[in-house]
Amino acid sequence: MSTVESSFRVEYAKSNRSKCKNCSSKIDKDSFRFAIMVYSSKFGGRVPTWYHMNCFFNKVKLIDVNIIKGFDDLRWEDQEKIRQIIQDNSTMPLDGNIPNDSFTVEYAKSNRSKCHGCELLIVKETLRLSRKNYTSKRARCYGPTDDWYHLQCFHQMKKDLGFSGVAQSFAGFVDLNDEDQMKLQDKFDILRKDIPHDILKELLELNSQKLVSGESNLIEAVADCMAFGALESCPECNGYLIFNYTNYRCTGNLTEWTNCSYSTQIANRKPFEIPDKIKNKYELFENYTYTKRNRIMTQIIKKPLLINTTAEISEPDYDCKLPLNGYSLAFIGRLSKRKRSLRKQIKELGGTIMKNINKKVDIIISTQDQIQKGDKKLDIAQNFNIHVVSEQFLKDILTDRPSIVMEKLKLSNWGILPHIRKHQTYSTRKIKRKSSNFRSKRFLPDKMTMKLKDGAAVDPDSGLEETCHVLKDSKTSDIFTAVLAWVDITLELFFVVVVVFFKGRTGTTFGSKKIDEFDDETDAINIFQELFLDKTGNEWKNGGKYKKIAKKYYPLEIDYGQHNNINNDQIQKILENNYKIQSNLSPSVQDLIHLIFNVETMKQTLLSFDIDLTKMPLGKLSKNQLNNAYQILTQLQILITNGSSTKTSIIDASNQFYTLIPHDFGLNKAIILDNIDLIQNKTEMIDNLLEIEIAYSMLKTNFDEEKEHPLDIHYKKLKSIIEPIDPISDEFKQIVNYMNNTHASTHKQYKLKLKNLFKIKRENEEENFQKWKNIQNHQLLWHGSRTTNFAGILSQGLRIAPPEAPMTGYMFGKGVYFADMVSKSANYCFTTRESPEGLLLLCEVALGKMYECYQATSLSADKLPQDKQATKGCGQTIPDPKEHIYTDEGILIPMGHGINANIPQSSLLYNEYIVYNTDQIKIKYLLRVEFDYSD
Question: What is the extent of the structural domain holding 267?
Fold first, then answer.
């Protein structure tokens, strides 16, 4: 059969404006809407005709979800609803009272219809059977058509045509005379009527086939084997293959983490064996002999499926009062009217004003002179194929459609009508995966805090956090709560099971969460353990040594700080009292501590990595679990760089990672971690999680009721002396010059302003640094990091990535990296216009003799040449050596303006300095810097 595009589509309605083609009533926003794609009379593309779900399935009978575009983008529970509807349609009632409209029987009305099987004419007033065709050119233009067959031809081809019903399944069956009804029943009901289900199951077992559920599926499986041979096991996992309308797919598991994704249209076969005792008993099998043949499959072109944020393809409805409704406009150049007046006119006509020229702009108003002059904005407009029209456009649209006026008044030699341009963009672009900005209140609660009681948190979604606490065994200290995860890329499920003591009303169900009441503690624990076993395949008594079971949830290792002797309520009470006490810290240091321990900043950092804070409360994943995630990323790096790994093995490792580190992709599907850039991004994410874990744990430990300000308590935990430096001092001015001089020319998106400068003396750092004190070549160099990392940096020093972490992202191996250009390091602060404050370090680094490199290389302390103590990545731009200065201690400050280094063979823009021993580092200064993005 020829390849065709899918003619069906499903999505969540984006507004209340669409109407059902069948019942003419509106389709509510966010509800299902199904479409049959038909050709537009206005342009050479197809447009959707929308239906309610029930109206759609009353009109169309489908037998597989794979032919519905957009199905994979639906939520899992909604996918299951549609699968069930399709299964109900394909598994017809045995009494045959409900006909399947996709298949029809009638008496031929003329001699003109031709059989699609034998291609001979069908004689008038003889039986003819049809299958609805939804994919032919005519069907896509005008709706489904009938493909007619002789009775005998249809019967021979019924498996290829996807028919597995009984005679009564045909629409029109009741209109036939008794004789022809009997004729149809004799043809189609033999397997269903004469062969018991136990025999069909026995045949499948004897031939090592998958035991499917449902009568229709059972008959389909046996019929497929009889017609084409028994299916060999999956070549990738040895699992069972089953027929799936457009192909054969595997139902097995590649590993305990991942379903096997193997599918094929030409499966390996073997003879279907029927024992003599069954042949002799049932007439249908008596003369059966296996003949090798291939099954002809329906071909579906699989285009990239878009997340359902695409706009309607058709041109916005024309309204003479608001003709610009749905259009975005922008101006370029000097116009005859004042732009303020034009803006008001456009708004009155229903349009939207855009300040910048980008792909969201539909129309640009300019002049012919401006077109001839040309400028950067017009280049952008041409790049996006945006129409440029004259001011007359705003008058003419009062009497004609915008699309017609656009073409009539077009000034540019480029331009595609907006609705067509958007359609082309959506239908041809590759989907570029981005961090999901979908933070619907339905999925992400406003309040994501967890109240700890007796060492464990009550799920706030339950509404019981104020009135109950989690059950804890006083003897074993076992806490009867579990967070379970099950991720398989297209599927991301979480399950929370908990036993709580509660006073008040219970027995309610909210969403997919249920609360049950037990009179006896033992009964509650037994049900908890049974549910845990059912969901995970593990016994609760295994005490944390759990194994992942295929198609089961995996218990996450959550650290609720149950070993602390104080709970959140006690901490809050102490904080409220102690905040009234005067701090011993200077105001600038107090502000710095506020910045370093800002919980909201920690949350925003995690959200920027798509971390799901509803499943992984801040600071609650254990360090052990994070180290396991590192190991999986290392495994993925090996699989990717190896080049010979299968996609399935990469999906398997991705599933493991997403199970350990819960992510929130909104309605988007999880991203397969199949390239080095993604591995680097996730490695950075784990780095930040570990740093945030350090900072957050500092906020929650060692509180007592001593009369001390909370900021002073946090300050002590940093194990550092932090002294502010006077802005009018020479020391402050010298650092400002170093910062201003070494701002790189390629980093002009922001300017840097030094707000505060602090001198740092870390506990024990001077002693560790002493062994490197006499080595040559000490330099004062820059290091930048997120503000959320500085609690860990100050309390534990700058650290090298652990052995579990993958090597990707490190140009010169795992070490601590420094720069002599301030903006090179400032980029790693990851500030934004909304959060423009960052922290930088200036460190005395004992570099010694440096191993100079011009390209990326894999180095470590072991691989560094014996006579070298550090690596230098030599950049094309360096600070001018003529402006270098030395401090009284002999430390070089490379504070010259950037000049060309005359080393064209280098792949680096700027110098990088790497040490592989943290004892070579002494933090000297901490800078609180404002990033000015105003230009």
Answer: 192-298
